[in-house]
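Hi R.,

Here's the chain you asked about this morning:
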Amino acid sequence: MSDVTGTVVELVERVTELPGISPASSFHSLANWTSLAALRLLTDIEDEFGVQLDLRTYLAVGDVGQLSDLVSTALGDR
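And the predicted structure, written out as C-alpha cells:
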C-alpha cells in the first residue's frame, strides 16, 4: 500500500469512525457514510495533501482505492 493510499485509508477510518477500511472499500457500503462525512473527508484530504480536488470528480469516486488514485493524480499535477 502506497503512502498516499495508507493516509487516505486512515482519513476515511477517522471520518467514518470505522476500522478495517481497505482500498477496495466502497463508500456507499459504509454504515456511517453520509453527505456530511463526504464533505469532511474532502476537507481533510485537501488539508492533509495540500491539493484541491474537483467536487464532481470527487463525488463520482466509488471506493477508497479510486480516491487514492485521484489524490495521487492531483499530487502529480502540482
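Residues 35-49 form the longest helix (15 residues).

Let me know if you need anything else.
M.
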